[in-house]
């Protein structure tokens, strides 16, 4: 048991206890007990005056072992587990000798709760201290909701538990969460303070700190204020429970508050929301390790970049690189476009500074790293080029041919194409092994997803480097195969098909958008298209029509193309699916759309219904996503269902607390999904053919997430 911790008793009478459970010192079963055993050993050791608790490596402790939560099946089991955790922390508090937490790197969740049970906290400048449990659909379950309000002001406690964002060292010191920042010699500083506490024979026991009435009243006001803001937010169960637990801290003695916390934690850990969010936590990390890419594949060192195309996407991509400290050349044939791009970028940084997201110094540095150019002359210096030009295959081919000549052989040539054939671009470049798809999502400097498209010839090094640079510029990456629309847009076409057809059948733009926002989407499909531009989709349909193809199987609604013909491209033309007042982004319903939809339905011989139930709208679009997602897996354009979940949650804002479209399908039951596909096939037509994978899994009672659910070989076109 005790190889999970270490202990060294120094000559100055300080025992250094080290948590040693790589990679992040998760407080898994055995680790917690090992720590308490060491503390008891040190407390009983006459040589020991005081104790320092630290983490091995660059992390103090990343909290409880998240993997272990799936094994908790009952409230009783959850409460029993929390009670043992509470006893452990009380054992540390009551050790009889002062314990100083020496925090390097992350002290998160149970890791921070452990530190708060220590009698003093010393941190290194890179420390990050937080209660991120809410991002996992949980609340702090080891006394964090009771100890934190005893150390920091109410607004800090509420924000930390409801938003889950960590504090850095300076903010933690300012809030009173930590006692000292050790610019160097963390362990020495902690040992010195520990000895001083021992000498003073007085140290604070956090749980014994009384919350004075004024702070308690302030706390209750902060909770009410936050509760009101949470009302409208779907998927906020854990945040509400966190507020309930904090409320107990401001109204009950410690032990009663702790008991309340255990009850509330049990609500969360067994909830569908938490299961979904825990799934997504691990799916994001797994997505960074695509099957078929050997672990430890060498990566190229990206010290400089270039972006071709100064449009909306090019601007966002250039900001991603510059904001991560990488010098970037922004190229466009039009000097006017480049000037406008720089203005937009400056404005974006100004608004980020105004919102307090970055400092003025960070904005100035990023801006200084962006250089505009109308030529490829300096491209032989860069390590990666991301092409973000107009979505036209011939134009992109020309660009890749020129890039193949203008850049060094080892330079990575990436395309931000959202639908086109990456292999065709690779061929045009003359260096196919260096070509890869880097599909960003709009706005590229905000949306976290990077869909990495592996071409037939893309080398392992280019793929591994794409994942590394994606992570460095703050993206969550998922690797997909090179097929039309890759994974994200391919499945989106089926989501939109159902939205259009529901419109023709009698639902309104407003109803469909409202229902899907209530389901948890950040915006409905029609408002989303008005933001992205109806013309973008229309041009892709026109390109496909030339190839005799459509974006999705089944009937093609003419309504979006009618809007395109009318020049209604969305917000940029103040009219699309909605109307917009000049300078406003507030969507105004437009009865004209219902007229166009009714006419289209009549032409397709569709009988419109007076009312379409909200539940049918959700069922139709989510079933279309899941069925096409299963097809994407069986055709191996995605390697795992979890990759699709990551793509939809970080690319389109699919509600994280539902885990993604495939996890949602598994949650409601694959048999239910298959039954719906068959019902729709009978009602609407053969285009609702069930995916073979779906039928096989239902027949075998299998899971999309079983290791053998999808044949292993990765997708290369
Ligand atoms: N449990 C289990 N595995 C974990 C883990 C954890 N808490 N944290 C990380 N891992 C795994 C991760 O899956 C990956 O594995 C490897 O460690 C490296 O992680 C009682 C209820 C600490 C900031 O929410 O935020 O405490 O993919 O790639 O980018 O109240 O990990 O290599 O196989 O993310 O350097 C609360 C979660 C738990 C923190 C490091 N704690 N972790 O980031 O590495 S609930 C958290 C992180 C709790 C208590 C409650 C980050 C990190 P693999 P990584 P990183």
Q: Please give the largest β-sheet.
A: 8 strands, mixed
Low-confidence stretches: none
Task: Tell me the helix content.
Answer: 40-55%
The coarse silhouette is globular
Provide an overview of this structure.
- The protein has 717 residues and is α/β, with parallel strands linked by helices.
- Helices cover 50% and strands 11% of the residues.
- It is built from 28 helices and 19 strands.
- The strands form four sheets. The protein has an eight-stranded mixed sheet with strand order 12-11-10-13-14-15-16-17, sandwiched between helices. A six-stranded mixed sheet has the order 1-2-3-4-6-9, sandwiched between helices. The chain has a three-stranded mixed sheet with strand order 5-7-8.
- A hairpin with an 8-residue loop joins strand 15 (435-440) and strand 16.
- It starts with a strand and ends in a 17-residue tail after the last helix.
- Bound molecules: (2S,3S)-3-hydroxy-2-methylbutanoyl-COA (T1G).
- (2S,3S)-3-hydroxy-2-methylbutanoyl-COA (T1G) is lined by residues 23-24, 26, 59, 62-67, 106, 108-110, 113, 132-133, 136, 138, 140-142, 144, 282, 285.
């Amino acid at each position: 048991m005790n190889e999970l911790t270490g202990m060294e008793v120094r000559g100055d009478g300080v025992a250094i206890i080290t948590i040693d459970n790589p990679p992040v010192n998760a407080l898994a079963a055995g680790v917690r007990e090992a720590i308490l055993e060491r503390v008891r050993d040190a407390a009983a050791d006459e040589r020991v005056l005081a104790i320092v608790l630290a983490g091995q490596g660059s992390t103090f402790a990343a909290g409880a072992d998240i993997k272990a939560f799936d094994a908790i099946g009952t409230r009783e089991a959850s409460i029993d587990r929390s009670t043992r955790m509470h006893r452990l922390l009380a054992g540390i508090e009551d050790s009889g000798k002062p314990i100083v937490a020496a925090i390097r790197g992350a002290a998160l969740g149970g890791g921070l709760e452990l530190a708060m049970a220590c009698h003093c906290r010393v941190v290194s400048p890179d420390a990050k201290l937080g209660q991120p449990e809410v991002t996992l659909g949980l609340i702090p379950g080891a006394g964090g909701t009771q100890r934190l309000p005893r150390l920091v002001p109410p607004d800090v406690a509420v924000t930390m538990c409801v938003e889950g964002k960590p504090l850095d060292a300076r903010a933690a010191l300012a809030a009173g969460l930590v006692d000292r920042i050790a610019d160097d010699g963390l362990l020495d500083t902690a040992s010195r303070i520990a000895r001083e506490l021992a000498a003073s024979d007085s140290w604070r026991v956090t749980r014994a700190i009384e919350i004075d009435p004024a702070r308690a009243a302030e706390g209750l006001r902060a909770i009410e204020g936050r509760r009101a803001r949470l009302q409208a937010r779907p998927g906020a169960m854990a945040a509400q429970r966190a507020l309930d637990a904090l409320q107990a801290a401001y109204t009950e003695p410690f032990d009663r508050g702790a008991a309340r916390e255990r009850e509330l934690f049990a609500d969360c850990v067994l909830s569908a929301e938490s299961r979904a969010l825990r799934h997504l936590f691990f799916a994001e990390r797994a997505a960074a390790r695509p099957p078929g890419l050997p672990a430890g594949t060498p990566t190229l060192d990206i010290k400089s970049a270039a972006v071709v195309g100064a449009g909306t996407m090019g601007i966002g991509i250039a900001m991603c690189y510059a904001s991560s400290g990488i010098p970037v050349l922004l190229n466009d044939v039009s000097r006017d476009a480049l000037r406008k791009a720089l203005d937009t970028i400056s404005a974006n940084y100004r608004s980020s500074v105004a919102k307090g997201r970055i400092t003025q110094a960070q904005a100035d540095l990023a801006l200084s790293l962006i250089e505009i150019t109308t030529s490829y002359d300096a491209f032989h210096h860069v390590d990666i080029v991301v092409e973000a030009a107009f979505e036209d295959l011939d134009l992109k081919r020309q660009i890749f041919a020129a890039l193949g000549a203008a850049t060094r052989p080892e330079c990575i040539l990436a395309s931000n194409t959202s639908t086109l054939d990456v292999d065709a671009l690779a061929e045009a470049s003359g260096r196919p092994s260096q070509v890869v798809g880097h599909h960003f999502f709009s706005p590229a400097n905000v949306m976290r997803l990077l869909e990495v498209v592996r071409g037939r010839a893309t080398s392992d090094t280019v793929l591994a480097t794409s994942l590394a640079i994606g992570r460095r510029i703050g993206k969550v990456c998922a690797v997909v195969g090179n097929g039309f629309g890759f994974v994200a847009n391919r499945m989106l076409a089926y989501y939109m098909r159902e939205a259009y057809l529901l419109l023709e059948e009698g639902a309104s733009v407003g109803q469909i958008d409202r229902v899907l926002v209530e389901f948890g989407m950040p915006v409905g499909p029609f408002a989303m298209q008005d933001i992205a531009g109806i013309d973008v989709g229309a041009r892709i349909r026109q390109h496909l029509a030339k190839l005799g193809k459509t974006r999705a199987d089944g009937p093609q609604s003419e309504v979006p193309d009618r809007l395109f013909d009318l020049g209604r491209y969305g917000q940029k033309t103040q009219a699309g699916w909605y109307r917009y007042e000049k300078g406003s982004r507030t969507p105004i319903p437009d009865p004209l759309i219902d007229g166009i939809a009714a006419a289209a339905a009549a032409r397709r011989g569709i009988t419109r219904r007076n009312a379409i139930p909200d539940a049918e709208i959700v069922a139709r679009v989510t079933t279309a996503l899941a069925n096409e997602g299963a097809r994407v897996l069986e055709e191996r354009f995605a390697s795992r269902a979890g990759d699709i979940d990551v793509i939809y949650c970080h690319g389109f804002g699919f509600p994280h607390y539902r885990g993604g479209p495939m996890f949602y399908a598994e949650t409601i039951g694959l048999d239910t999904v298959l039954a719906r596909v068959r019902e729709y096939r009978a009602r609407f037509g053969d285009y609702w053919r069930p995916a073979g994978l779906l039928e096989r899994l239902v027949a075998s009672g299998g899971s999309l997430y079983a290791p053998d659910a999808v044949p292993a070989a990765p997708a290369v076109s």
